[in-house]
Design brief:
Elements (H helix, E strand, L loop, with lengths): L3 E4 L2 E4 L2 E3 L2 E5 L2 E6 L10 E4 L4 E4 L1 E3 L19 H10 L2 E10 L5 H12 L6 E8 L5 H12 L4 E5 L6 H4 L7 H14 L2 E5 L3 H13 L8 H4 L2 H18 L3 E3 L5 H12 L4 E6 H5 L22 H13 L4 E3 L7 H4 L18 H13 L3 H16 L16 E11 L17 E11 L2 E5 L2 E2 L15 H5 L4
Parallel strand pairs: 1-6, 2-7, 8-9, 9-10, 10-11, 11-12, 12-13, 13-14, 14-15
Antiparallel strand pairs: 1-4, 2-3, 4-5, 7-16, 16-17, 17-18, 18-19
Amino acid sequence: MLDLIIRGGQVVTTWGVGDWDVAVQGEKIVALAAPNTLTDDDARVIDATGKVVVPGGIEPHAHIAAPIMGKGNLTTAPPEQVSRAALYGGTTTLMDFAIQYPGIDINQAIQERTSVWQGNSYSDYSHHLMLLGEIPPEILGSLHEYIEDGFASVKIFTTNIRPPSMSGQPRMVGMGHLHDLMEQVQRHGAMLMVHSEDDDMVQHMYQKLTSEERTEWWNMHLVHSNESEDVSFRRVLNVSEWTGSPVYFVHVSAMQGLAAIQESRAKGMPVYGETLHNYCCFSADNYREENGMKYHTYPSLKSEEDRQTLWRGIVQGGLSTMATDEYCTSWELKIEGRTISDVTGGHNGAETRMGITYSEGVSRRGMSLQRFVDVTSANAAKIMGLYPRKGVIAPGSDADIVLIDPSIKKRLAKEDFHISDYSIWEDFEVEGWPVTTILRGNVVVEDGQFNAALGGGQFLRRKVDPQVMNGPAA
């Protein structure tokens, strides 16, 4: 007995795009069939005529209920807010971070995340591990236990991001610790996520611009520069080549970073890169606007040439995923910082990621629908160990399904957003937007109505496929 039939839409699968019927029973997809061949008098039928039917989006990089740098005990928006907005925007799975600070172990970091998320999410979710600063031997030695338990990805930083007076807890992992971590990651089948900038260059530029009295926020791209990304990426890749460890570079922002990734992938290395839809749609020129710090996400926006290059990486290949680095704060807090040292990074992008990528990628740049699915869902599922449960419309997969209406052409307004009190996407013109979201067979967003139950989101344990560990498989 079927519970749901989706009929009449353009269904995007791994083997092509077609006008298939999609059958759902319980939480799973159970069949794809020729148009109008599935019948069940007890099943609900959704007419998807004129719509594009894709897998639910997967956001691989979000900071939810996370400490805000330089702001004491303040945190970013909690799971109930972000997951609600994400479902409105067609993203059905969110991935954030269990942070192992000095003084606590990995198990305590996971317990903290569990207390924040359990019973408080509308969407499905999972946690990366995040290791800060010098990694103690006992932490490194215990890492395999958590990888085996389904925490299949680990994030580190090669920079402290901000100057010492504003950075808070040291974040930077040195090359020696990175090497040892990579050996563990490779040996135990995990994915290493790297925020990669050269800290010497970053800290030098903070000092240099301060001495030159050029500390206005619009100089941020001079601190977090193309050169810093280039030098750091290539150092990390050299260690990856020595150890055989896979690497997933978060928030690629410069053409040099993309070039380094492409060169390594051409050699057969298991290297992956994400960019952010705000990096693809705005440039450092936007910093010059009134309150232009609203666009800032670390590392920084770069030039118009970098922006266009990132789009080519998303549309044509080279970059694997479109993410957000979700970091939702209030407008008041977002514009409070006015200098290169105190600007608050991040934005509330989980809701707009799918729609902006469709509008700018498919509608305006001719990106194929299969490539759209790759960068918004399938590749994240593969790289982070969720595939084929997530990221694909196929029998046996979770019935996470999104209907996009390509006929929608409008300028985004405040009422289109469901989180925070501002959005950098207000007044942005779009062509195509998600209109229906289904999470494990439940229609959670339809006709602008939200129907999900708080606590209905499930925690997901993950295991990375060896193919992804051994070569550029996504």
